[in-house]
Design brief:
Six copies of one chain form a homohexamer. By secondary structure, chain A is α/β, with parallel strands linked by helices. Chain A folds into two domains: about 130 residues, Quinolinate phosphoribosyl transferase, N-terminal domain (Aldehyde Oxidoreductase, domain 3, Alpha-Beta Complex), CATH 3.90.1170.20; about 140 residues, TIM Barrel. The first copy, chain A, contains eleven helices and twelve strands. In chain A, strand 8, helix 8 and strand 9 form a beta-alpha-beta unit. In chain A, helix 3 packs antiparallel against helix 4, helix 4 packs across helix 5 and helix 6 crosses helix 7. The longest helix of chain A is centred in the middle third of the chain and has 31 residues. Chain A is elongated. Chain A starts with 11 loop residues before the first helix and ends with a strand. The interface between A and B is large, with 65 and 65 residues.
Chain lengths: ~290, ~290, ~290, ~290, ~290, ~290
Amino acid sequence: MTTEPFAPSLDPFLIRPLVEAALREDLRSGDLTTEALIPPELSGRATMNFRVAGTVAGLQLAQTAFEMLDASAKVELLAHDGQGVEAKTSVLRVECSGRALLSAERVALNFVQRLSGIATLTARYAREIEGTKARLADTRKTTPLLRLVEKYAVRCGGGKNHRYALDDLILIKDNHIALCGGVEAAIERAKARIGHSVKIEVECDTLDQVGRAANAGADILLLDNMPPDVLKQAVEIVAGRSLCEASGGINLTTIRSVAETGVDLISVGALTHGATNLDIGLDVEL
Amino acid sequence: MTTEPFAPSLDPFLIRPLVEAALREDLRSGDLTTEALIPPELSGRATMNFRVAGTVAGLQLAQTAFEMLDASAKVELLAHDGQGVEAKTSVLRVECSGRALLSAERVALNFVQRLSGIATLTARYAREIEGTKARLADTRKTTPLLRLVEKYAVRCGGGKNHRYALDDLILIKDNHIALCGGVEAAIERAKARIGHSVKIEVECDTLDQVGRAANAGADILLLDNMPPDVLKQAVEIVAGRSLCEASGGINLTTIRSVAETGVDLISVGALTHGATNLDIGLDVEL
Amino acid sequence: MTTEPFAPSLDPFLIRPLVEAALREDLRSGDLTTEALIPPELSGRATMNFRVAGTVAGLQLAQTAFEMLDASAKVELLAHDGQGVEAKTSVLRVECSGRALLSAERVALNFVQRLSGIATLTARYAREIEGTKARLADTRKTTPLLRLVEKYAVRCGGGKNHRYALDDLILIKDNHIALCGGVEAAIERAKARIGHSVKIEVECDTLDQVGRAANAGADILLLDNMPPDVLKQAVEIVAGRSLCEASGGINLTTIRSVAETGVDLISVGALTHGATNLDIGLDVEL
Amino acid sequence: MTTEPFAPSLDPFLIRPLVEAALREDLRSGDLTTEALIPPELSGRATMNFRVAGTVAGLQLAQTAFEMLDASAKVELLAHDGQGVEAKTSVLRVECSGRALLSAERVALNFVQRLSGIATLTARYAREIEGTKARLADTRKTTPLLRLVEKYAVRCGGGKNHRYALDDLILIKDNHIALCGGVEAAIERAKARIGHSVKIEVECDTLDQVGRAANAGADILLLDNMPPDVLKQAVEIVAGRSLCEASGGINLTTIRSVAETGVDLISVGALTHGATNLDIGLDVEL
Amino acid sequence: MTTEPFAPSLDPFLIRPLVEAALREDLRSGDLTTEALIPPELSGRATMNFRVAGTVAGLQLAQTAFEMLDASAKVELLAHDGQGVEAKTSVLRVECSGRALLSAERVALNFVQRLSGIATLTARYAREIEGTKARLADTRKTTPLLRLVEKYAVRCGGGKNHRYALDDLILIKDNHIALCGGVEAAIERAKARIGHSVKIEVECDTLDQVGRAANAGADILLLDNMPPDVLKQAVEIVAGRSLCEASGGINLTTIRSVAETGVDLISVGALTHGATNLDIGLDVEL
Amino acid sequence: MTTEPFAPSLDPFLIRPLVEAALREDLRSGDLTTEALIPPELSGRATMNFRVAGTVAGLQLAQTAFEMLDASAKVELLAHDGQGVEAKTSVLRVECSGRALLSAERVALNFVQRLSGIATLTARYAREIEGTKARLADTRKTTPLLRLVEKYAVRCGGGKNHRYALDDLILIKDNHIALCGGVEAAIERAKARIGHSVKIEVECDTLDQVGRAANAGADILLLDNMPPDVLKQAVEIVAGRSLCEASGGINLTTIRSVAETGVDLISVGALTHGATNLDIGLDVEL
């Protein structure tokens, strides 16, 4: 066994409620067209195909959608999540009842298109910073109710997940610092309240704050909207005592210069909020 | 009273489950930072501001988020959904407990950013076809679990909603036609099964199909991926017997020429699946 | 393949939440009698039998109930939903654990008795208007939480479904007309707001309204409480421009004369709100 | 204070999930007609009126429906559940937003019509046995998911509730007796398993069983399908040791003769499964 | 077949929602450690072992937990619920995917540890009163949301269940008696309201109340905090007309003397609220 | 403002679903006794009183229970969560309808008794290690479905929370190390997969593992079942590079000696799984 990561995957237990809710949203009282025109005993086959090149994400969601409408559906994954594929690549093959095939089609595609869109965009960002020590991270700017799978898609694209929710990291901002009477007091109060498994991050707008937060024992510094030369100075001031996270308005054009400042990570909200669906289709044969 | 439409609005009863689920997704076991650093008795104020120009959508979702965490929150809408605003416009003012303000911030923004992104994109498409008889429509290519509010955002942007789910329109495609032995047989079978309040749409790839479907009494024809000159012929063949809907690969560059063919409506999946979040911020004062 | 409709059926995915809720309502903390007196390893057999003649509806709900309590239950349908059967006809045979058999019995029967009651009543109404062009339709006067299956039962009995809910048809009544300043203005405003897949129905109490609504492009006219001779005049005025729906106080005695006026459809609330359970039993052999 | 019972009432906490589910079933993505035609600021008034004489049940469900769609709705109950009223009696007055009024109307009526139908039928049965010692009871033959309110409606009509679910009474039937090797063994085994707060009822088809079950300490005997003269003998055999319950095929014509046999209670499934909706309307003024 | 009770068991249908909620509480967005370090194709084995002697309860909950995360898990119960086992006894063997094994471990243990703790404590109480006619009963002092399984654990330990909830027994206390103007009036009013399947219990603090409640036909008397000699007098006064239940501050030291007074049952809140988790481990082999 | 922590509190938004579920579990179809005997218009008062000395936790849950059954309930907290109180201290006063008071009583008490039991036990442990640098932490050995409030109760008692769920900390155990081929490889693989906001803890059974894990950059070392002298050596080896957590079989007698070894934290499962309910009563006045 090597230290190679396994292909990312989503536990069916975790995604089942999401896929079921999506199917109920689309089916409501039933698929009228299918019930009227497709004989119940007819079976069908289909392949899901990338029309453009991209990074795959969310195939288990599609698989679960077909299986939920036809317990005897046979689904074969022809690619794995996280894999980069060329245009015209088949990523999934399904054989099931014709009714289930047509009724689940839109939900299956909506998931894979959106998640592969995120993974593909993430992979583009990640490629830009290859060779630097910086890691790429997402934010909480995800579509409401889809955080589980959108953060998963970021991992498929080669990104890392920042905090999942408001309860797994302390993030101290300017308002907090002002209320507590200084960055040291804010960190002290946070440490007095939280458990030892939670990290503390402090948002810094100036190099003075950077020094004080690192001195006070912040685990991570959020270096907000700093240009590369300032970031470089911040990294030197910190000198490894805290992780340095660059954030704010970073795009595909600027991310390389940010990464080369020596920051540990770069968080980019656009990975999730700026992604659009990838062009992926289901070719059906009844 | 005139026939002017009211500003679009979302009934709180309809969106409450969605906002609650989004808050639970983000809060999980609680907002650690806020609980550690913000005194419970502190109150705060904030305004939500468009950083860029755009069309407003989703303010009630933001309002509901603040009210859910603080029953005595005072929220004032400074713009209405559907309104086009300039950059640096304040669209909502909230005064509530500081804890509720910070804990609801991300959810409130995630909703308004995404929905205003959709409304803004829709408005751009709608402007392109002004003066023609064509109406702009969305599709079922929405984010899973958010169809209710994404289709609402399309209306805010001046678009129309195509069918909501699989149970409120019959849409006959090539597979169905082949299975039934012809477009006439398929329409006949559909009519025999469904109620009188449901319309029947038929996907047509050729002008021959167009004529046969119109003859057979289809309410709507989905003219799939036809170039403008063919669309124009289709409209002439139909001669008002059915609604003509153009669909497939239409973008901001091509939509005008499509609209000028005389089709009744143009459906564009990109309104929802190709929109990105609009840059909108919450400026907090504790 | 012919255009014959398939036997109606309910997708298990759609009814599972309903059957599960019904079982939890009846079992609560468990079936005390069964747990105390029936050995867990005992298996049993039963047939479900119509004690009177009627039209079958809801067998999948019974099947699902048994399968939910015993995943290895074997259920055989001896009739299909929509089939008319004589008294003393067996419609379902089940073999499963004795505990599951007894614990699911009441829920299985409550569903089939109520739905077959509706289907049987619907079939009686439908027979009355055979040979006319009129179709029979239900209303929204269904038992709360059971609309999905009660409207299905109407289809089993040969009826058509009117709108499912408040979001799939515009129905303009006198109050709306008064508020909008006339039937034409009301229709115009409705058309300006809704998508092209939604039909517009207008309630008409007078022949004057009938003419104006048909002129204004209403898809359906609800002819409310009109006697047959007035209905006949309405049909003539409309002359095929809109569908004519007769409604209001129509019963088994009067429906034929209504149908013979030439209306397109007749909606009868009693199909669901006036039906009583059919006498159906489960004969158990442990 | 006297021992007079209070008017029956339903705790809002108990019915809220039911009313909410019913509203969501009817509204789905929204009330299209109301949103298109009714200005949001318009308020309205309505009274709910019995078109026929009957017994009132379910007014709190209607009240809750209006309040759920308009938190500032003012609802006044003009009658109380359990009250017998004449035709043309107003039982509820509501003043709220016009949109809420129209959107909640159908759900409010569906509940009150069905529950008042049950209460009215129950009251007719109850009147037949006035002056005898027999009490009238319902069964578990209720509409799935509505047991809570249908059993409440039986109480409104003057009936008593038999067991609510499978976990609050032991009911030993012939199959159980056969499996246990006799009525005495079955009762003994049941007593060995259950707590002291649960009663034991035994179904008896013969007078021999009646004697043995009473001897063995059954709390209640279910005298199934016995004619009045046999019931009378059963009552004599029991001599007050157990409660005697007559059941099976009892209708309005036969119930008096059954009650005069001296049985303690008479259970009638038709109270719930044989009731139809009462004619009740909402007269709206916008 | 004898009248021997079967081993107690929990129907999977009843516990599935509970186990699923517990797994979602523990897994949230996924088991990070397992996903990072355990290959998905690895399978594992484990045995669940009692570290101390005790009474087994809740094995089906553990079984369900493993099966929910791995549908092909093989679980073998090596003991049955209600069985007393020695320290170092293996009670369950599971073979499933290594990921499912580790992810379900804590939930499986938390259930079995708590429920076996309750069963073991109950069994100790039950042993103390062996040979008397008194039966041991629980109360409603259970952990919120776990009543179903905690009352089941009491049965596993040899106890009986008192009422499950507020709707399956009338329990008249001093406040009620004062409000109604006397114990007789309170019982009368209760009988006038409830069905015949519900028992009536009256809390008695004095021997005078005991006599009056028995005379008035109470099914059960709750003899609250009475010393053994007073209990004995109460039993004599009642003379079998009602069941006598001793309650209040009874512990392992005093329960025998209470049981010897001749009371029918003794209810002990500590069975559930005073139990601690039993030391039980899962020995894993990957 | 000082760095003093605020009194701990639970956001009503977070606990509402829990309290509602607990009330529905106890009320089911309604509180029979209250409905039969308490007039709806009667109001009442009560105080919640500690019968023994202890640490308060969970008052908001009680408050929410009363408010849920009576929206106009007036609840006054006489103590705050986290406060140590003497026996016979009143901690909450409520005035509401008599029905709500009696129906919510058991749920309110069950929550406060259990949570105060945990807080009180935690406070005893915490007192034992006062003056050392060690902090006290809980584990995931909580009652299923109650983790949110049980971990809150630990904070009320002066303890810290260890990880909340399987997704907010990496915890590498011996099985993982064996599978990965060594502690260094396991840590490396974990770091390659997770985000920067997640800490990594490694379970160490030997001093050799301690050194290797600290060298490899583990954030926390779980020193499992080590006697004090070995713990002391481990602390010296680590020399501040990682946090040292002592765990395994630590009780009130041994915890002081563990704390004096210089470890950073001590986790004790018994805080939650070994706590019993505290004796707290509600004294009602109707």
